[in-house]
Amino acid sequence: MIQLLKRVPLFSELSDDQLDIITSITSQLEFEPNTVLFERGDPGSAFCIVVKGSVKVYTSNDEGHQKILAVFHPGDSFGELSLIDGKPRSATVETLEDTILLTVTNESFHLLLRAHYDIAQKVIIQLCSRLRATNTHVYDLAFLEPSARIVKNMIRSAKLHGERSEDKLIVHTPFSREATAGLAGVKLHILDEVLQDLQEEGILSIEEHQYSIDLAKLYDSNYIL
């Protein structure tokens, strides 16, 4: 369990002893595919860590059209702001497959922070880091061309969830068009045009259960990261 918590950005700077304390206030829950964990506007009462499976975070309009904001895999976490302010959720979260989560309630977390200032300080630093990353993402959406946003988000995801093999980043999960388009803020037809170009140039290879990005070919191409 400690090794999993070390992969969670919010807890990455904590010692093993501090992670033992975090472990003591977690609960493990299992969910079937397509289970809505919470909807936008629901009370924020828990922080979640993906142990197994994956979830998507999205918003939707009155017509039911979804905009995917993120897809989380094992080691990823979400709902950290609810640990601090307990305000309503800003997006809907749904499982994509059989999923196991570790959860921490905001009540338990506040009690822990009052008793352990050293943990509180490190957690606050990590929350600031997450906010800076969000600001960067907003900048990308505002100023980068669609093709650059697509490639940048693919590289970011591959670095987080894949492995390096010589000049390639290999991700051992199916490629999600919907998630990639949502993260880059583009329509699916635009994404498909970029994907076709990337595959024709040998930069991207998509198989049934994995995909890979050739970094050497990417850096020799005209795509701006």
UniProtKB/TrEMBL annotation:
Pfam families: cNMP_binding
CDD domains, alphabetized: CAP_ED (cd00038)
Key words, A-Z: Activator, Receptor
UniProt xrefs under Gene3D superfamilies: Jelly Rolls, Winged helix-like DNA-binding domain superfamily/Winged helix DNA-binding domain
GO molecular function, one term: DNA-binding transcription factor activity
GO cellular component term, pick one: cytosol
This protein's name: CRP/FNR family transcriptional regulator, anaerobic regulatory protein/CRP/FNR family transcriptional regulator, cyclic AMP receptor protein
